[in-house]
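Q: Okay, next protein. This is Chorismate synthase from Sediminibacillus dalangtanensis. I've checked the sequence twice, so it should be correct. Can you predict the 3D structure?
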Amino acid sequence: MRYLTAGESHGKQLTTIIEGLPAQLPLTKENINESLLRRQKGHGRGKRMQIEKDLVEIAGGVRHGYTLGSPIAMVIHNDDFKHWEDIMGEDPFPEGQKIRRTVTRPRPGHADLNGAMKYGHRDIRNVLERSSARETAARVAAGAVAKTLLAELDIQVVGYVREIAGIKAQDKPNLTMEERKRISEQSPVHCLDENAGRQMMDAIDQAKKEGDSIGGVCEVYVEGMPAGVGSYVHYDRKLDGRIAGSVASINAFKGVEFGIGFEAARRNGSEVHDEIAWEKERGYYRKTNRLGGFEGGMTTGMPIVVKGVMKPIPTLYKPLQSVDIDSKEPFSASIERSDACAVPAASVVMEHVVAFELAKGLLEQFPHDQFPKLKEALESYRKEIRDF
Ligand SMILES: Cc1cc2nc3c(=O)[nH]c(=O)nc-3n(C[C@H](O)[C@H](O)[C@H](O)COP(=O)(O)O)c2cc1C
Ligand SMILES: C=C(O[C@@H]1CC(C(=O)O)=C[C@@H](OP(=O)(O)O)[C@H]1O)C(=O)O
């Protein structure tokens, strides 16, 4: 299974195509819209989120609430397009007429300068439109389909915020999956620790007032994945590696950790590895979960715990220095609008990209064209490993 997205931030629409999903999976647009709505929420976002109301249109691959086995095509319209039609239209410009408002000033921390040089664009808008994190809405649509498949297999995935601007949420290892979902949904910063959440909001307001931006850490928590998904035999079949790649590919993400992550460098082995135990009802399990659900590129059957770090938003009201690509003169980057902090929204994006990798890993292990057969195969595998 794979997916592609297309579309520019201020263009007509975003499009997502998923290929390789089995037939007969129950799927409705409500599942997807719920995810899209969650991505739009979160304290710290700019004016654009007040313009957009992300709703999906399923344009192919689903009939009467079930997948057909054909590619799933999904469309999200950009409501902001109506303000950009003259700039973002696809028709050639009338001869002799110049494009209004070309962008010649690359913003530090963005794809602007590297992308313009690579593709030979003198108008940087040709780069920034696609490199914008608007594209993450299309990724969330793909992940929402994956989450639907996982939920049908009793695998639950949730993302939330662990840290913003150095304010750390307390670890809440005893919360159930339902509590994690409910609390993060209710929190304006998608945080499980109410007290830290309040401080995070203050920090966001403060950064905004100062014309600055702040970053943070998101966590994705997964329950129900059986042991042995992924593989140790090739670098590109290691599921933790794939998850790390897809998390690092989210706009502004700069690092990934599993379980205790970088803390492992500072501990002895006896304080890192998780001892193995067995019980008749449960089968094999680990007494602790410091490695976050992965050994040897495969799931251990313990909850998957993965963190991703997001840098502060690069577009700042407090301008950074850059150079105009036409005049070569220095300038201070000025802006019209931007998010001050998008870590809460990014936690939803991260949840969905992780979900996609998990669903993809399962489909590789149990390659069935019909969803009920996949479900049956997974149930039989679960029994097999419990009795192993
Ligand atoms: C949900 C989300 C919203 C974002 N909003 C903005 C924004 O309003 N302004 C901005 O400059 N960058 C924003 N970014 C980050 C940029 O898209 C990103 O830093 C840029 O594309 C460069 O990519 P890189 O940071 O991965 O190198 C956002 C990222 C995410 C995940
Ligand atoms: C549109 C979204 O995020 C955008 C991501 C983004 C960027 O540079 O990455 C810049 C902002 O867009 P604009 O320049 O139109 O204000 C954000 O609003 C979204 O998340 O749906």
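A: Here is a summary of the prediction. The mean pLDDT is 95. DSSP finds eleven helices and 17 strands in the chain.
Q: Noted. On to the next one.
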